[in-house]
Amino acid sequence: ASNIGETCATVTWLELNAALLALSGEARYAAEIERSMFNQLLAAQDERSGEICYYTALAGRKEFSPGPLCCVSSGPRALSRLPEFAYGIGEGVLAVLQYAPGRAELALGGTRVVLEVATEFPARGAVRLTLTPERPLRFALRLRVPDWAGRFEASLAGHRVAGRAGEFLDLEADWRAGSVVEVAMDLPLAALEGPPTYPGHRLLRRGPQVLALERSLNPQVPYLERTAVAMPPRAVEPLPAPAGWGPGPVYRVPGRARTGARAPLVERACTLAFVPYADARDYRVLLPRAGALAPQPPPVTAYARVALSSAPWRVRPGARALAADRAEAVTDEDPASHCAILSDDPTLTSALGPGARRGEPVWFAVILDEPAAVVRIVFRHGPVAASGGAFDAADGGPWIEIAPERLQGWRDGHYPSPERGPWKRVGRLPGYPAAGEPRPPGGAVYELTLPTAEPIHGLRIVGRPDGDSVSCAELSGFAT
């Protein structure tokens, strides 16, 4: 789960919805801004250093960077624009589009209006709005009712009015200095279905915030990939964060987890600690359904950083059937997903270095944050067709290589280019078809067992393409 959630794309999506909101005035575009703002955008920034993620995936560890990258400049640009997305002015209307504490001075029909917002949103659903026009003025205060809100009520001068989710609620009145509107909204905990690329998974959302299972707050759960939320999810309130975690809330939710070192793992009831995705550091958002937890330990490489020796989005027209699905497919435990390397891609980087030519070795690599002991390595092919998809075994390949030392250039979550060693060759995949034999079928699984467990910082499979491409559906290292 690495090369997804690009910050530049998040920023562009925010700007598009801001433009559509200005043109149409429809609440759904403000809802998209809220969803992106409280989740993907805020998740992309390190609150401690201010650094920005190029990609902010839904699993793994965030990789913040200070470097001269497009996303490192786009992220702060969007953060600086957030106040522009909070309020709107129309003819006789002052609209509150986003709920956040602050103070704004707005001009309505030539009259200056000061709006002060006091709230702990999105942790809590109480909002106090104080309006101070420079002279008594009649206009409509337009409140956006979030589409996720189970209950939304606004109180003005003792009168309580309910709003409908996903719409606007207008409060027209003669406003004077110090006029106060009290808003109360529920922040329900909901379990949402995962995307099509993660069938059988769910994620939790509380109010506008997606929640993440944080590794450091769940020491009782050895495998985040083997946990599930008890259904239906129970409504929770934020609890004080443990010492050293930070100011953000922590939510405790009943769930189940499989524990142990060897299969079959034992499934037990447990309490899981979730945090807002924006605050998560080493985490997982998508969880399997309850009752569908795999009984075997996950690979130590599950959802680790993935790198390919060719940019997977440059697809030759003749190799469309092997087009990349997504880079993290090689570590996501989903045999139906895959990624591919096109051998004559102009951006190709071979195992020998840049400037590759057709037929030179290519590789799929998995890089770990911390070293882990591996004794068994599994490779699963993606699709194989007449035009390619398999490795060419004429020179004895493909080979499995491990990185026994930290890769050069690794620092603080920033990853090097995996062609920079050291790499140690540990063997060929037993049973892989030799030169002259039929190509392996799509989905074929090959396993290499090492004589003894070896601590690794990364592993990769290297070989020459047999045709136009090579595909990979899984590359995993196991401790047992």
Q: Can you give me a brief rundown of this structure?
A:
It contains 3 helices and 32 strands. With 480 residues, the chain is mainly beta.
Give the tags.
10% helix, mainly beta, 40% strand, 9-stranded antiparallel β-sheet, 3 helices, 480 residues, 7-stranded antiparallel β-sheet
Average pLDDT figure: 87
Distance between the termini: 23 Å
SS summary, helix count: 3
Q: State the share of residues found in helices, binned by percent.
A: under 10%
Largest sheet: 9 strands, antiparallel
Model description:
The protein is mainly beta. The protein contains three helices and 32 strands. It has helices at 7-24, 27-43, 70-81; strands at residues 52-53, 59-61, 64-65, 87-90, 93-96, 102-108, 111-119, 126-133, 137-144, 152-156, 159-162, 168-175, 179-185, 189-193, 201-206, 209-214, 227-229, 251-259, 266-276, 282-284, 287-288, 305-308, 339-342, 349-350, 353-354, 362-380, 390-392, 399-403, 424-428, 445-466, 469-472, 474-478. Strands 2, 14, 15, 16, 17, 18, 19, 20 and 21 form a nine-stranded antiparallel beta sheet that branches. The longest helix is centred in the first third of the chain and has 18 residues, at 7-24. The two termini are 23 Å apart.
Show the helix and strand layout:
Layout: H1 7-24, H2 27-43, E1 52-53, E2 59-61, E3 64-65, H3 70-81, E4 87-90, E5 93-96, E6 102-108, E7 111-119, E8 126-133, E9 137-144, E10 152-156, E11 159-162, E12 168-175, E13 179-185, E14 189-193, E15 201-206, E16 209-214, E17 227-229, E18 251-259, E19 266-276, E20 282-284, E21 287-288, E22 305-308, E23 339-342, E24 349-350, E25 353-354, E26 362-380, E27 390-392, E28 399-403, E29 424-428, E30 445-466, E31 469-472, E32 474-478
Parallel strand pairs: 5-9
Antiparallel strand pairs: 1-3, 2-20, 4-5, 6-7, 7-8, 8-13, 9-12, 10-11, 10-13, 14-15, 15-16, 15-21, 16-19, 16-20, 17-18, 18-19, 22-26, 23-31, 24-25, 26-30, 26-32, 27-30, 28-29, 28-30
Helix pairs in contact: 1-2, 1-3
